[in-house]
Design goal:
Helix content is 35%, strand content 20%. By secondary structure, the protein is an alpha/beta fold. The chain has a ten-stranded mixed β-sheet with strand order 1-2-3-4-7-8-9-10-11-12. A hairpin with a 2-residue loop joins strand 3 and strand 4. GO terms for molecular function: 4 iron, 4 sulfur cluster binding; metal ion binding; rRNA (adenine(2503)-C2-)-methyltransferase activity; rRNA binding; tRNA (adenine(37)-C2)-methyltransferase activity; tRNA binding. Pfam families: Radical_SAM (PF04055), RlmN_N (PF21016).
C-alpha cells in the first residue's frame, strides 16, 4: 500500500521535494493543502505543477479511512468506526469539554495487552497503524467539525492499542500534528496513555517533549494489578513506579494515573488507602474512571457514593484526584466496543 500523505511533516516534505528536484518551499504548499484547506484529492493542489500533482498521487494516498459508522451521543460525543485499506477497522472519538473539543485516536488495530476490563483487546492485536493513519483520524475529526466552525483543541492517544508498542509511529504522529505548518496542535495539548511499558516510559522522558503522560494504573498493589493487567507480569508495579519517578525527575511534568473503578475488585476503602500511600508525595493526578459496561466482561459499576468516598480517601493523602466525566454513555462508549461488535467479538 502507498504511504499516507498525512504521515509527513514539513521537514519530510522538504526532503521529498529535494528528491523530486523541486524547490523546498513546495513543502509548505503541500502542508497547507493537506492540513489547512484539508483537500481530499491531489488534483485540488492548484498552485502545484500538474506533473508534481501526478507524482504525489502516484506516491501517496489521501484516503486511508472509510467511514463505516458514526454514533452521536446526547452529550455531543461522536464515535467513528473507520474502515482501513486492508479491511480492518478502528475507532476515533470526539469528546466535547468546556475547554474545547478533544479527539481520542487509535494507534493499533486491536490490542495484545489483555486488560480484563477493556473491549479493545477482544480479538487480539492485528497490526500497528502507520503515523499517517493516526494523523488521518485527527484530520477526519476536524473535517467533521469544520461546518460547525469548531476545531480540534486537544488530542489524547488513548484509543485502542498500546501507543508505546507502536512507539516510533506514535512519536512521528505527534511531530506531524504539532508541526506549525500542519494542524498546529501544541505539545501541551497532547497526551499519550500507556498501560505501563517501562522502557518506553523512560525513553519518552528523554524525548524532551512537553507532551503529557497518562499511565493506566487500575490497582494499588502488584498482585491485584497482575490479575487485572497481564502486562504487570512483565513490568511489575515497583518497576513501573521507578520509571514514573524517572519521568518526573527528567521532565518535571505531572503524570496522570488512570484508575478504572471496578465493582468489588479494586474499589474498596482499603484499595483507596493503599493507592494513597503509593502515590503520596508524587507530582500526579489520579483520574477515577467509572468502568464502562462491556457485556463480554460482565463488570459491575461502583456506586456513586462509593466513588466519592474513594476520592476523599485519596485526597486525605494529598493526592490530587478527579472523577472522569462520562462521555457517550448512551452509545458504544467503551474503547474498542463498537469495533468489537462490528467484527462479531461481542
Amino acid at each position: 500500500m502507498k504511504p499516507v500523505a498525512y504521515g509527513l511533516n514539513t521537514d519530510h516534505w522538504k526532503n521529498w521535494m529535494d528528491q523530486q528536484g523541486q524547490p523546498s518551499w513546495r513543502a509548505d504548499q503541500v502542508m497547507n493543502w493537506l492540513f489547512q484547506k484539508r483537500i481530499t484529492d491531489f488534483k485540488e493542489m492548484t498552485n502545484l505543477p500538474r506533473d508534481l500533482r501526478l507524482r504525489l498521487a502516484d506516491s501517496f494516498t489521501l484516503d486511508p479511512l472509510t467511514p463505516l459508522e458514526v454514533q452521536t451521543s446526547r452529550d455531543g460525543t461522536v464515535k467513528f468506526l473507520f474502515g482501513l485499506r486492508d479491511g480492518h477497522a478502528i475507532e476515533t472519538v470526539i469528546m466535547r469539554h468546556r475547554y474545547g473539543n478533544s479527539v481520542c485516536v487509535t494507534t493499533q488495530v486491536g490490542c495484545r495487552i489483555g486488560c480484563t476490563f477493556c473491549a479493545s483487546t477482544l480479538g487480539g492485536l492485528k497490526r500497528n497503524l502507520e503515523a499517517g493513519e493516526i494523523v488521518a483520524q485527527v484530520v477526519a475529526a476536524q473535517r467533521f467539525l469544520d461546518p460547525k466552525g469548531e476545531r480540534v483543541r486537544t488530542v489524547v492517544v488513548m484509543g485502542s492499542g498500546e501507543p508505546f508498542e507502536n512507539y516510533e509511529e506514535t512519536m512521528r504522529f505527534i511531530r506531524v500534528i504539532n508541526d506549525p505548518g500542519g494542524l498546529r496542535i501544541g505539545q501541551r495539548h497532547i497526551t499519550v496513555s500507556t498501560s505501563g511499558v517501562v522502557p518506553c516510559i523512560r525513553k519518552f522522558a528523554e524525548e524532551g517533549l512537553q507532551v503529557g503522560l497518562a499511565v493506566s494504573l487500575h490497582a494499588p498493589n502488584n498482585e491485584l494489578r497482575s490479575k487485572l493487567m497481564p502486562i504487570n507480569r512483565r513490568y511489575p508495579l515497583p518497576e513501573l513506579m521507578d520509571a514514573c519517578r524517572y519521568y518526573l525527575e527528567l521532565t518535571g511534568r505531572r503524570i496522570t494515573f488512570e484508575y478504572a473503578l471496578i465493582g468489588g475488585r479494586n474499589d474498596g476503602e482499603e484499595h483507596a488507602h493503599e493507592l494513597g500511600q503509593l502515590l503520596s508525595g508524587m507530582k500526579c493526578l489520579v483520574n477515577l474512571i467509572p468502568v464502562n459496561f462491556v457485556p463480554e466482561r460482565n463488570l459491575q459499576r461502583t456506586p456513586r457514593e462509593q466513588i466519592l468516598r474513594f476520592q476523599r480517601i485519596l485526597q486525605s493523602y494529598r493526592v490530587n484526584t478527579t472523577i472522569r466525566r462520562e462521555h457517550g454513555s448512551d452509545i458504544d462508549a467503551a474503547c474498542g466496543q463498537l469495533r468489537a461488535k462490528r467484527i462479531g467479538v461481542l
